[in-house]
UniProtKB/TrEMBL annotation, chain A:
This is Phosphonate ABC transporter, permease protein PhnE. It comes from the Bacteria. Its main location: membrane. It is a multi-pass membrane protein. Belongs to the binding-protein-dependent transport system permease family. It is found in: Cell membrane.
TrEMBL record, chain B:
SUPFAM superfamilies: MetI-like. The chain crosses the membrane at residues 26-47, 88-110, 131-160, 217-236, 243-261. The gene is phnE. The lineage of its organism: Bacteria, Pseudomonadati, Pseudomonadota, Alphaproteobacteria, Sneathiellales. PANTHER family: ABC TRANSPORT SYSTEM PERMEASE PROTEIN P69, PHOSPHONATES TRANSPORT SYSTEM PERMEASE PROTEIN. It is found in: Cell membrane. Keywords: Cell membrane, Membrane, Transmembrane, Transmembrane helix, Transport. It is a multi-pass membrane protein. This is Phosphonate ABC transporter, permease protein PhnE. PROSITE patterns: ABC_TM1. Residues 80-262 form the ABC transmembrane type-1 domain.
Amino acid sequence: MPIKKSEAGAPVWMHRTPKTRLLMWVGWLALVALFVFCWQVMTKDTIWYFVADAPRQAADIGSRMFPPKLDYMNELWGPLWDTINIATLGTLLAIVMAVPVAFLAARNTTPSIRFVRPVALFIIVSSRSINALIWGLLLVAVIGPGVFAGIIAIALRSIGFIAKLLYEAIEEIDETQIEAINATGASAMQRLDYGITPQIMPAFAGITVFRWDINIRESTVLGLVGAGGLGLKLQASINVLAWGQVTTIFIVILVTVMISEWVSAKVRHSLI
Amino acid sequence: MTVENASAAPRIWRKQPFIKNPLTRWGLYTAALIYLALAVSTVPVNWARVWEGLDRGWRFVQGFLVPDFTSRWGDILIGMQESLTMTVTSTVVGILISVPIGIGAARNIAPAPVYAICRGIITISRSFQEIIIAILFVAMFGFGPFAGFLTLSFATIGFLSKLLAEDIEDIDESQTEAIGATGGGWWQVVNYAIQPQVMPRLIGLSLYRLDINFRESAVIGIVGAGGIGATLNTAIDRYEYDTAGAILIVIILIVMVAEYSSGYVRKWVQ
């Protein structure tokens, strides 16, 4: 415990030693310097007039956003259905691809730790690093705009997420059950079916529903890059500065996200 | 697993179904099937367009395998610079704002009105996606990384305050009591009893958020909030797939470096 002698010679408790204090001070100084430097670089092209003007702009947009144009809702049912389909079908497609990847990536089920596992991990990492919107941007350029591009974008983004959490669940299973199944003379497939699957099923269902919830969120904005759903209407409304319609879309998105969150929380709760 | 001698032991063991109640099970299966049929039938797929696009997709794969870093290197550099500076500044500002809000949103140390206000701020910040906030901020503050910085700071507040508040609610109360017993005031309790308990996790969460902010900074450029996303969007619009491939490789590398280093630092802190 760091102690300093007071002038009378009595020990005084100190929170940290002088060396730690100096190190922490240098650390904080470096952080502040980094922040100031980044701030300078970032704002060197900022037009401060626009920034100063922002409160007025905000008030202007705010006044146009209210009241929301609620009869626009009639045009939103179709895109809403598309949005839910993008998320659900995308998640299903992702499951189909993610489950084999997860079994190839898990240390205890992969056929080869040296060759197959790195490939599976690479698939997981590259799928996870790229946001669904960027996948959407690419796919709209490749297979044309529309719901189909959105489904594929969501699926490609979700593979990494589902596969990563699933292979971690597979690695954590109880090996004694596999041994027990093995002792009955089961084949590899039976081991998988009776030993591993029942153990990872709750985790798998939880992960899937959780990802579905995230996918609902993401699919509401995928339309911004042309991949179908509510985002398309949002983009169209913003382009014509119809802020009343934008508010309606925001409300729809908010309600959809809240419902999906509720459903996912409910399902995960009943699983655990 | 079936029993060998069925006549001696007529009962056959079957695996337990995942959903126990047969009515719910079959109901759910039927509903899922009907939904799937409906959903698939309403997805319009222009197979001719997809077939045409495969060629383009193949060119993109080629661009990814043989990326072109040189011809647009200046643009990539500016985009990366904007993204990285945006990430750092927004994370720092976000943390600075979210710490007081997080303390205010912890039920065990904040008075009820402050708690309600802080929880309200968190809910607002969490309910919308970064990209939607970016659209609004771009409309208010003009194009460029400043709008992106504001977006990411705003999103950081919701994320960090919520987790910090939950963490403060989970602390060991005996330490608070001990500091209180020495006659420490509210500030001293926060500083000596709560801060040491939540600090490791706060550092971990901040690093995690830094990581998230970088990923998001690559996306919000699509709606005009600066950063590498804008460069990527331009590259794809120009059909320069080799440049797009290069940008994606740079993003993946930085995300991987950030993920590994933040994981390492978190292990070291905790």
